[in-house]
Amino acid sequence: MSADPFKDADLPEDPFDDKDDPTVGVISEPVNEVHIRIQQRNGKKCLTLVQGLPPKLNLKKVMQYFKKNFCCNGTIVEDDAAGRVLQLTGDQRKVIADFLINEKICRKEQVKIHGVL
After folding, report:
1. Which residues share a beta bridge with 113?
2. Which PANTHER family does this UniProt record tie to the protein (predicted)?
3. Which of 60, 74, 83, 87 is least crowded, fewest Cβ atoms below 10 Å from its Cβ?
């Protein structure tokens, strides 16, 4: 016969019950993170990939700005899993992150730079 060690304790019926918590079941505003990655090609060549940009953003205009001001080439790639991805030649991670933050497209906490700078 096993004895219940919590028999005399003054605990609620279910300690994991969230009936009284008003935040349970409330869907918070999604935090869109912008991921900036680098992909090694061959030798010294590399690509910078930017994914997770807001859907309302005109990526064609953003790409034109990047190509002109960062002296690089680039394209917009449609990916099944990641959605629309900006693909730029060279290591453009720092300047892209600075641009996104300075133009208030996203906050600093939302920008995730992958890889070693």
Report:
1. 36
2. EUKARYOTIC TRANSLATION INITIATION FACTOR SUI1 (PTHR10388)
3. 60
Higher pLDDT, 51 or 31: 51
Cα–Cα dist 65/11, whole Å: 62
Residue with tokens 């992150």: 97
What 3-state DSSP class applies to 107? Answer: coil
Q: What is the DSSP pairing of strand 83-89 with strand 34-40?
A: unpaired
- CA 77 – CA 49 distance, rounded (Å): 10
Distance CA 64, CA 61 (A): 5
* CA distances to 6, 43, 74, 106 from 34, in Å: 48, 27, 18, 8
Pick from 90, 41, 92: nearest CA to 62: 92
Structural domains for the chain? 34-113 (3.30.780.10)
Residue 77 confidence (pLDDT) above 90? yes
Q: How far apart are CA 20 and CA 31, in angstroms?
A: 26
